[in-house]
């Protein structure tokens, strides 16, 4: 792909995301926000649109970018019904999974009619927003291969605009088949959208699904580089850190980590495991008690300031069964924290095994435990891996470089579409 554009014109990009602060926002959404900041700094115009809620809707701004949180009677009714259903049938918290008997590395449950109703209501709300602004939009971009991908392709057809879809999970395109008329949606995406693959695994999965190479562009997740290198201040006791949303089980592999910790703590009784992220329910307290490790495991809950955790950790661990490209892993590596991760999408792109971190098989307790122990037993080797990891992430995933790649792709799309 040619990245040079003589006198590139300012672009106007409409980004569909599922949520932005103060609403809940995942890794894909925060990546979109960071990209928007960089593009705005480059002179482009970015605005976001997403479903709103009763507590947060209407037009506002984040970092100078306009945000439309769409909300109407249809979405309000849907929200009320969902809240009532949740109260009547609270979601069961399942921690442990059997990888020999269950599918744990992809979403397999069917998307029912409520989801179909929801994203169709949102589509018409989005069309009402964008139609009068259609001359002010050059590209429509969504950052996840779920129902937003279905919506943006339809919007692109109505508005006659190029569409860009970022595949932010290992197998999101494949699992679109679980939606109503999923095969038709997949074909429509192939015919009408350009796709971004964050990792080599995602790229290969898209090709295996029948998507032409010409429809795929490789761009990793980006990370904003600090003005000065982070200062490492490891804790007095050996500290291992996990950062992730526990509600995303089995994807995050937290059950594998906790079982591995039983082995680690036998060798390092003084070690501590810090688990940072949403979803630290009472069921997790019961689970660690059943494993006899409650004294060495702390559930920190959701934290807005993660730097202090990265700076104090002796080792970062990401035991995921499924990832796109983990923001938490990138941040930990940028802080110079020696990292252990499963050999899956994203992690295998970021870590060169034995040089900038350690890679282990997914869903296997013993190899994960041994890798963590290696980091704790050989601190000099671990420290060198941490230093190499920081250099690698800074070079490979600088948001300045990533935003330049997107800028080039947007210009290519608008040039072809004009």
How would you characterize the overall build of this protein?
The chain is of the alpha/beta class and 418 residues long. The chain has 2 domains: 12-222 and 399-417, Glycogen Phosphorylase B (Rossmann fold, 3-Layer(aba) Sandwich); 239-397, Rossmann fold, CATH 3.40.50.2000. Helices cover 43% and strands 16% of the residues. It contains 15 helices and 14 strands. The chain has helices at residues 27-41, 73-88, 113-130, 147-159, 172-175, 182-192, 200-208, 254-267, 282-291, 307-312, 327-334, 347-350, 365-377, 379-397, 399-417, and strands at residues 12-16, 45-51, 58-62, 65-70, 139-142, 163-167, 194-197, 216-218, 239-243, 272-276, 297-301, 315-318, 339-342, 358-360. The chain has an 8-stranded mixed beta sheet, with helices on both faces. Strands 11-10-9-12-13-14 form a 6-stranded parallel beta sheet, with helices on both faces. The longest helix is centred in the last third of the chain and has 19 residues, at 379-397. The protein starts with 11 loop residues before the first strand and ends with a helix. Residues 1-7 have low confidence and may be disordered.
What is the topology?
Layout: E1 12-16, H1 27-41, E2 45-51, E3 58-62, E4 65-70, H2 73-88, H3 113-130, E5 139-142, H4 147-159, E6 163-167, H5 172-175, H6 182-192, E7 194-197, H7 200-208, E8 216-218, E9 239-243, H8 254-267, E10 272-276, H9 282-291, E11 297-301, H10 307-312, E12 315-318, H11 327-334, E13 339-342, H12 347-350, E14 358-360, H13 365-377, H14 379-397, H15 399-417
Parallel strand pairs: 1-2, 1-5, 2-4, 5-6, 6-7, 7-8, 9-10, 9-12, 10-11, 12-13, 13-14
Antiparallel strand pairs: 3-4
Helix pairs in contact: 1-15, 3-4, 4-6, 8-13, 11-14
């Amino acid at each position: 792909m040619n990245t040079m554009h003589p006198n590139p014109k300012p672009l106007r990009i409409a980004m569909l995301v599922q949520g932005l602060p103060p609403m809940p926002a995942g890794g894909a959404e925060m990546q979109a926000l960071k990209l928007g900041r960089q593009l705005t700094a480059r002179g482009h115009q970015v605005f976001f649109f997403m479903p709103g809620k009763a507590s947060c809707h209407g037009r506002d701004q984040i970092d100078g970018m306009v945000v439309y949180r769409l909300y109407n009677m249809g979405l309000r009714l849907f929200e009320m019904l969902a809240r009532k259903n949740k109260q009547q049938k609270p979601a069961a918290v399942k921690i442990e999974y059997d990888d020999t008997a269950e599918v744990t590395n992809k979403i397999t449950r069917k998307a029912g009619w409520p989801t179909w109703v929801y994203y169709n209501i949102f589509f018409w709300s989005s069309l009402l927003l964008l139609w009068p602004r259609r001359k002010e939009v050059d590209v429509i971009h969504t950052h996840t291969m779920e129902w937003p991908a279905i919506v943006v392709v339809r919007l692109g057809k109505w508005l006659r605009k190029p569409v860009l879809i970022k595949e932010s999970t290992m197998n999101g395109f494949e699992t679109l088949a679980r939606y109503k008329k999923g095969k038709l949606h997949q074909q429509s995406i192939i015919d009408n959208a350009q796709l971004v693959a964050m990792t080599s695994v995602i790229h290969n999965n898209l090709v295996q699904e029948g998507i032409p190479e010409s429809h795929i562009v490789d761009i990793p997740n980006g990370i904003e580089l600090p003005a000065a290198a982070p200062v490492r201040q490891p804790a007095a006791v050996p500290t291992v850190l996990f950062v992730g949303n526990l509600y995303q089980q089995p994807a995050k592999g937290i059950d594998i980590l906790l079982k591995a910790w039983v082995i680690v703590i036998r060798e390092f009784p003084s070690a501590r495991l810090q688990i940072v992220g949403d979803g630290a329910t009472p069921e997790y307290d019961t689970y660690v008690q059943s494993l006899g490790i409650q004294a060495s495991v702390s559930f920190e809950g959701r934290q807005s300031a993660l730097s202090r955790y990265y700076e104090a950790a002796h080792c970062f661990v990401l035991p995921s069964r499924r990832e796109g490209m983990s923001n938490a892993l990138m941040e930990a590596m940028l802080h110079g924290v020696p990292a252990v991760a499963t050999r899956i999408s994203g992690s295998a792109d970021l870590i060169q095994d034995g040089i900038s971190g350690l890679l282990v098989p997914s869903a296997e307790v013993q190899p994960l435990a041994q890798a963590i122990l290696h980091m704790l037993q050989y601190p000099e080797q671990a420290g060198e891996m941490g230093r190499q990891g920081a250099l690698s992430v800074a070079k490979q995933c600088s948001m300045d470089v990533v935003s330049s790649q997107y800028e080039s792709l947007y210009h290519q799309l608008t040039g072809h579409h004009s």
